[in-house]
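Write out this protein's structure.
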Amino acid sequence: MDRIKMLTLLALRTMVSHRVKNTIVGSIMIFGTMLVVVGTSLLDSIEAAMQKSITSSITGDAQVYASDAEDKLAIFGQMGGGDDIGEIEDYAKVEKTLLAMPNVKAVVPMALGNAASFGKSELDRVLFSLRQAARDKDTAMLSQKQAHVRQIASLMLEENTNAAEISTDPEKLADERAQIQTVMGDDFWQGFEQNPEPQLEFLDTRLAPLSTEGRLLYVRYIATDPELFVKSFDRFQIVDGTMIPEGKRGILFSKRYYEMQVKNRVARELDAIKKDVDAGGVIATDEVLKNRIDRLSRLSSVVVFQLDAEETPLVFNKLQKILPQTKGGIDELMTEFLKVDDTTLSDRYAYFYKEIAPMIDVYDIGVGDEMVLQSFTKSGYAKSVKVKIWGTFNFRGLETSDLAGSTNIMDLVSFRALYGKMTADQREELSTIKAEADVQAVTAENAEETLF
């Protein structure tokens, strides 16, 4: 007992006699301990948040795929990669087994795929509306769309004339010029209301191929059960439109993909330039921004071709007021308008969305529209399916992620059609046809004997 008392007194005397040194050492130890505890907690929180943002958005906590797959599963894979992750033949059996395991809350069926969609040019859109107006015998719409076609033809004629000055094939351009001038003449449109088919055929087969081709969209998607997907991933949220209704076919575009790929090229370039400048970029000294603006100004026809005969003079007059020194027609004015710099970018960006955007299709494919997706099966056959765009979505916390934003969502029925997978009813129907036709399997060895 005396020894303990003596050691305690010695310890207290040491602390008192070296209180400055002890304070410094203690402070260092406390700071180090706090740094380790707080730093570890912070890292654990960041790691948990990152894991939660991924597992609660699209991947889940575990993925199950075919054991004999040629490639490893990569949900955030590269477009056009053609990854072969195999097939799960008896999904119902696998699902039942997984749900019987402890800590498994839900099993969400998914399939990865890539498809392409060939977009329409501006002229294609007008011709579609013209054909629809002719079918409905809408006189007012017919007159408007006819004027729009002639407006586009006049712009095409200007492009043809400019190209003739540097072309090495003047005969081809002369033939194209004659076809364009035919559409611009009054004789071409006489009798259109009574019998529009000859003119429509000429427009589809002779004029439309001369116009700028529509863009090719590559669509990477995950096919799933939409209702179960929403219930299982709480980071999912609809931005535009609605969710794919139960029992309906269709596709949801990722909001980021919709903005980066489907949006009108002029609007998309303006957005990107504005974003870079807001982040500190200076057009006057940044060669990348200068090149983007030069490319942007050459896209003026993308906007001009969408303006009909009534809208063109309205936009022309508006642009003349802000660009009084620019000579020429609507194409020259639009080109000059898009040549923005550090002093004009903000005003012209706002002006574009306020005055011009309402007159054009800001998105090549709108929410509620239908599009045709095309893909190739494993055996090499081309398949296509028409789907409706129900809306756009994103995942909370991953709104600006290029990886998460590159993947869209499709229903499983549409996927099966693109993948070329037959249903049980289709297989049964094929077997019946084979039986009725007395189809037999023939090997190379006995092919000649069977034939003769």
